[in-house]
Structures are given as C-alpha cells and as structure tokens.
C-alpha cells in the first residue's frame, strides 16, 4: 500500500540503503562519524546485531541497531538515527518498538543507551556532576530538544550519567528500559 511507512529488518546486502544510512549517520552525528559512516553502518548490520530500517515509498527514513552488551540479558541500543525531514512523525518510535519486540522475544530483559549532551542541551551540562549528581539527575531540564525526553516518552529512564564523557561539562546520559516479561 502506498504512502505507508515500512519498518523492516535491515540487511548488510541492501547496498543502496546501507550507503544512505552511512550518509545519514555522518550528517546527523558529524562529530562522531564524519568519514566513518559506512564502517559504522557495516558494524551495525553485522550478524551478532539486530537492526531495523524505516522506508516510505523507497525513501530511506532512518535505522536503529542494538548489540549484546551483558550476555544474554542486556543489550545496548546504538545508534538510532532519523532523517531530518522524517522527524516528529513517529519514525524513531516505530523503529525502537520493532527493536524492543525482537529483543524481548530473544529473552532480553534490559535495553540501555547513552545519549550524549555534547551541545549543552540539558541542565546536566552545567557545572561539576561529581557534586550532588543524583539531585542533578532528578532535576534534569531540557534546553535544546535533547533526545532524552524522546526516550522517556518510550519508557526509558535516566539510570546514570558519565560526567565529562565528551569533554568538560559534556556528559553522556545513560538510559535504560525493562523489556522482559516478569517471571522469566
């Protein structure tokens, strides 16, 4: 059916989409992936990872990937990227939901992620986080559309912060979500 977004597993063999994913990753996160987008996408699509892509009428809208970090129960969501013209349209939400469903079916209990604050977009970039960290985490504020609020809407919680992970007063905000079925 035309005009419907398609969320589907992302394969290393989808060469045109792989190239588009690499360009998207480099433009969305130039500080991290400039000149390395293709290598990162190839890693995201390796056999031991889980990845999904979003397309609409052949247009590549974004992708998400996850890797096993704590065998077998804890997986890291890395990365999630959505094209600028597809943001705030439910693309990221649908990608994350597909990923969570697959990982839950594999018996994964927890998904976690790091969402860097490299642009002083939250109150966590103000001052020394080694002083009164937990109170600062509890009072976190979003100044510049930092994605931690997107993840909160999907049920993720801030579970920690790595102060100065990306330079002075540029923390990595660690978030996690329980996706396990109770009693398993």
Automatic annotation (TrEMBL):
One Pfam assignment: Acetyltransf_1
MF terms in GO: acyltransferase activity, transferring groups other than amino-acyl groups
UniProt keyword rRNA processing, yes or no: no
Classification via InterPro entries: Acyl_CoA_acyltransferase, GNAT_dom
Name under which the protein is recorded: Aminoglycoside 6'-N-acetyltransferase I
Organism: Proteiniclasticum ruminis
Residues in N-acetyltransferase domain copies: 5-180
Signal peptide: none
UniProt keyword annotations, A-Z: Transferase
Classification via CDD domains: NAT_SF (cd04301)
SUPFAM superfamilies: Acyl-CoA N-acyltransferases (Nat)
């Amino acid at each position: 059916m035309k005009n419907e977004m398609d969320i589907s597993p992302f394969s290393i063999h989808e060469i045109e989409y792989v190239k588009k994913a690499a360009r998207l990753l480099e433009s969305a996160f130039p500080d991290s992936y400039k000149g390395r987008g293709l290598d990162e996408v190839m890693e995201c699509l390796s056999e031991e990872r889980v990845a999904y892509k979003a397309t609409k009428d052949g247009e590549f809208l974004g992708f998400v990937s996850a890797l096993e970090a704590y065998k077998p129960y804890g997986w890291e969501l890395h990365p999630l990227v959505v094209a600028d013209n597809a943001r705030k349209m439910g693309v990221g939400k649908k990608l994350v939901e597909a990923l969570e469903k697959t990982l839950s079916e594999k018996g994964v209990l927890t998904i976690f992620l790091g969402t860097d604050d490299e642009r002083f977009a939250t109150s966590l970039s103000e001052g020394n986080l080694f002083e009164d960290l937990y109170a600062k985490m509890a009072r976190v504020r979003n100044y510049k559309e930092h994605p931690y609020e997107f993840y909160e809407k999907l049920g993720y919680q801030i579970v920690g912060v790595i102060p100065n992970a990306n330079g002075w007063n540029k923390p990595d905000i660690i978030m996690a979500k329980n996706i396990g079925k109770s009693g398993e």
